[in-house]
Design goal:
With 351 residues, this protein is of the alpha/beta class. 35% of the residues lie in helices and 18% in strands. The C terminus is likely disordered.
Length: 351
């Protein structure tokens, strides 16, 4: 996740105001947290700069960086600096980072059969060992859709893909492919990457993933379109990265673009419990309850603008998110009495 350093130089009036009200020192952090930023460090300094805030935020920050800078850095007394992890920077200096894939052979019958054979090793053993219990609701919605379709879910843990895969019926997961960050899961072999599960061929063949290049523009969706043209289903986390706050990060436009262009249904799934089982940044896994709440399929009106469609998709899943935050994991069921912010979506018949 990108890291930024924000340096602030306070004016004389501002320093006098802080002496009167020390809590004003946290105002910058409060604004950053409104944008789903995670504060890593906060320092008051003695020197040319008076305050230093180190924070990380998802890729969605790029879309809002201009607005955030205008809000925080319009004055020459602030300076926003992007940072890079030192070990990664050293590695980039030593060797050129290249990615492999996508691999079109992953849609072949023998590749699908290999995934079926490795299903226990790659997916089910983790579900059986750590999801205690694993409850799926809304399975009746599977009868309302036909392949191909786009399955989406909220994203808080590396285990999200395990839960999403496990809640789907066999006819759907037999031919489903997960979008994954190219710069993590599809780096070219070498440079000490001895773990088999980190090899690009393994992720294409066994996990059924395909690379998504972050910030790659519309061309990033070319392979997704190709998969849909082959009759494949897609599984995408539209937040783009794992959320670390109580708010869902803003959705990227990829899902809306694909659904509108291909006239396909979107199947939203809200996952709970995964962040407690394996939090972001931790390798420790603690067994616990997991829910997969399948929502009614969503059909986007033809001709709808992409930003409006993205907003509609976000609001549908975010309404469930708010209910869960307010009432607990079981509140994600689609058939429970909804709060006023839960808006029922009328699904149009498939074309």
């Amino acid at each position: 996740m990108p890291v930024y350093v924000l340096l602030t130089r306070l004016s004389s009036p501002a320093q006098r105001e802080i002496i009167k009200t020390p809590t004003r020192l946290s105002s910058i952090s409060d604004i950053l947290e409104q944008w789903d930023a995670k504060i890593l460090a906060d320092y008051h300094m003695m020197g040319e700069w008076h305050h230093c805030t180190v924070f990380e935020v998802s890729d969605n920050f790029r879309a809002h960086q201009a607005l955030l800078q205008q809000e925080l850095t319009s004055s020459p007394d602030t300076w926003l600096l992007p940072g890079i992890d030192l070990p990664l920077f050293e590695r980039m200096l030593r060797q050129e980072l290249r990615t492999e894939g996508p691999h079109q052979w992953q849609v072949k019958w023998w590749a699908k059969l290999a995934r079926l054979c490795f299903r226990w090793y790659q997916y089910d053993r983790w579900v059986w060992r750590y999801f205690k219990p694993f409850q799926v609701t809304g399975t009746e919605h599977f009868t309302a859709i036909k392949a191909p379709c786009i399955v989406i879910a909220n994203h808080t843990s590396h285990f999200d893909s395990l839960a999403l895969h496990a809640c789907l019926p066999l006819w759907l997961r037999w031919n489903i492919y997960f979008g994954a960050a190219a710069d993590r899961w599809f780096l070219r072999a070498g440079g000490g990457r001895r773990d088999m599960t980190l090899q690009p061929w393994y992720n294409s063949l066994i996990t059924g993933c395909f690379p998504i290049r972050r910030g790659g523009g519309s061309a990033t969706l070319d392979y997704s379109r190709w998969l849909l043209d082959q009759g494949a289903n897609l599984a995408i986390f539209p937040e783009g990265t794992r959320s670390t706050s109580h708010k869902m990060a803003r959705f990227k436009h990829g899902v809306a673009l694909l659904a509108l262009q291909k006239k396909l249904p979107i199947l939203p799934v809200y996952l709970t419990g995964l962040a407690r089982i394996r939090p972001k940044g931790s390798r420790k896994v603690t067994p616990g309850p997991v829910h997969a709440h399948i929502q009614p399929p969503l059909y986007l009106p033809e001709g709808m603008a992409v930003p409006d469609a993205t907003r509609l998709i976000y609001e549908e899943l975010n309404a469930v998110h708010k209910s869960v935050i307010a009432h607990g994991d079981a509140a994600g069921r689609w058939d429970l009495p909804h709060d006023s912010h839960r808006r029922p979506i009328k699904a149009a018949p498939a074309q």
